[in-house]
Amino acid sequence: MVQFFSKRRLKIAEQIIVVSFVAVLIPMSVSGIVINNINQQSNRSQLRSAAVLIAKIVSEEIDVFYKSINNELYQITETLEYYNNKEQEQEFLDKIANGMQFYEELEICDNEHELSKFNHYNTKNNYVVIKKPLKNGRILVAVLNTDDLKENLFNTVAEDKRQIYVLNGETRSLLASSNYTESGFKDSMEQLPQKLTDNKPVIFGDTKNLPLVYLNKTTPKAVIIVNTTEAVKKKAIDHNRDKIVLSIIIAMLTIFFVVGLYTSYLYINIRQLFKAIIAISKGNYERRIRLLTNIFTPFELVFLGTEFNKMVNQIHKSYIQLKKKNKELKQLNEFRSNMIDTVSHEFRTPLTSIQGYTSRLLRQDIQIDEETKQKSLMIIKRQSERLKRMIEDLLVIPDIEGARLNVNLTDIPINTVLENSLLLVKNDTGKEIINNLQDCDTKIIADIDRIEQVFVNLVENAIKYAKENTPIIIEGEKEGENLIISIKNEYDIIPREKLKTLFDKFTRVDDSTTRTTRGTGLGLFIVKGLMEAMNGDIRLYSNEECGFEAKLYIPIIYG
């Protein structure tokens, strides 16, 4: 027999028969044992990691709720500064408490001693007390009903079968739970250490495959306990072990059964695989494996062919996407170049004016009269302010794109805001500005500096593009909870497709070939960002009736 094998090399079919009977039973049995042990270790580690992850997720949900409440309380404390007596303050707090269901009480205490009257809430499961100091030494106390927290706290992990308990960090009373059972909660509390590590998930408990995790939060004070139940352990470890054993048995039986059926087709199909690999190596990403398939073709080979074709599809798609990305990168580079050209051109003009008039004032060889000096200084000041506005426009862009723009919303009369804004407008062409809101005392809710910036930007934009000897018209009307302010100017009709792009960065009505006005093309982008930050909106219209019109939708105060 040995002499027979030494005289010639075995064919694939012969090798398969020998290997199937000699090298399947023992390796697969050993592999099954090793895989099962590794799987148990892996699943045990996953159970721990999952419990830790769930504790962190619940912690993050608590942080989101806590930060949300803190932000609201900050807004309340800021608003309280505008009230002159306690009656007005309490009326304001009562209105908020009635309007938001999770506020049980909102009250101002004059000193620490008065806080004792809220102590009884700490012994109840459904309430949390938060204190916020005011500037005058008093304390704003908010009693929160945790029912809203309970409804949203476990949404992310709703499908998980683990038991989750959230305790009051001071009294260790139960605030919220998921998959609660009396026995599970009692067992978890008995195993919970007396001294807890702060702000770090810690695994505790005596059962190896049923890990318990606690996370002791210091801000806010809460303890999160995640208990891995028998059902979770059975699904993660026992079921997988049974599946592995069953898969090994089926695999061995299948190998012995199909080995004689697929041998005759193996050589042909392997040749197909070789041809496909060679085609891929030469850059033909559209080549696919076409197997000779019937009931005798083994699953593994069909699977290999299917997965190989999927891989080729992915490579082909990736290749197409790469070409697309290269094209987009080229367009992005062009956009960057256009941006640099636009910004540098707009910066160069005021800098040149400042440099020229400064050099003129510094000359010692000529006598400059006072009127000329003042005129030069005014030009320098005006160009400096223009340069400052362009820099501020560029600096505010990251805040708008990152939704980090801070606004201080107050109630202000619209006529006052418009009067102040029109004083800041640069109107070198002397175009007439018709303000039909001079007598309108409707109060809007906005940040006074930001809304002035919006009006200045839009009015200057209207002046810049309006036709010769045509006025700029400012009108307004109430609609629901908004005051709609319209700023119109006479201009050629702008196509709808172009109108939609005017809110993009560095986009102008007049492109680089027809440009007749100065500007970076950031104005409308910034205006839209400021309006959205103040809970408002802006819309653009262009037709024969209005020419060009910008409509601002600004929230107003009733009463």
Describe this structure in words.
- By secondary structure, the protein is of the alpha+beta class.
- It is built from 13 helices and 15 strands.
- It has helices at residues 2-7, 12-22, 25-80, 86-99, 147-153, 182-191, 230-281, 299-362, 370-401, 414-424, 448-465, 496-500, 523-533, and strands at 103-109, 127-133, 139-145, 163-168, 174-178, 202-204, 212-218, 221-227, 410-413, 433-435, 443-446, 472-479, 482-489, 537-543, 547-555.
- The strands form 4 sheets. Strands 5-4-8-7-6 form a 5-stranded antiparallel beta sheet, sandwiched between helices. It has a 5-stranded mixed beta sheet with strand order 10-12-13-15-14. A 3-stranded antiparallel beta sheet has the order 1-3-2.
- A hairpin with a 2-residue loop joins strand 7 (212-218) and strand 8 (221-227).
- Helix 8 runs antiparallel to helix 9 and helix 10 (414-424) crosses helix 11 (448-465).
- The longest helix has 64 residues, at 299-362.
- The protein is flat, with a radius of gyration of 37 Å.
- The termini are far apart.
Topology:
Blueprint (H helix, E strand, L loop, with lengths): L1 H6 L4 H11 L2 H56 L5 H14 L3 E7 L17 E7 L5 E7 L1 H7 L9 E6 L5 E5 L3 H10 L10 E3 L7 E7 L2 E7 L2 H52 L17 H64 L7 H32 L8 E4 H11 L8 E3 L7 E4 L1 H18 L6 E8 L2 E8 L6 H5 L22 H11 L3 E7 L3 E9 L4
Parallel strand pairs: 10-12
Antiparallel strand pairs: 1-3, 2-3, 4-5, 4-8, 6-7, 7-8, 9-11, 12-13, 13-15, 14-15
Helix pairs in contact: 2-7, 3-7, 8-9, 9-13, 10-11, 11-13
**Global shape:** flat
The number of distinct β-strands equals 15
H-E string? HHHHEEEHEEHEEEHHHEHEEHEEHHEE
Our count of helices gives 13
Give a quick account of the main beta sheet: strands, pairing sense, barrel closure: 5 strands, antiparallel
Strand content: 15-25%
Give, in spatial order, the strands making up the sheet with the most strands.
Answer: 5-4-8-7-6
Q: Give the % helix.
A: 40-55%
Structural class: alpha+beta
Mean pLDDT: 79
Q: Please compute the radius of gyration using only Cα atoms.
A: 37 Å
Uncertain parts: 512-516
End-to-end C-alpha gap: 106 Å
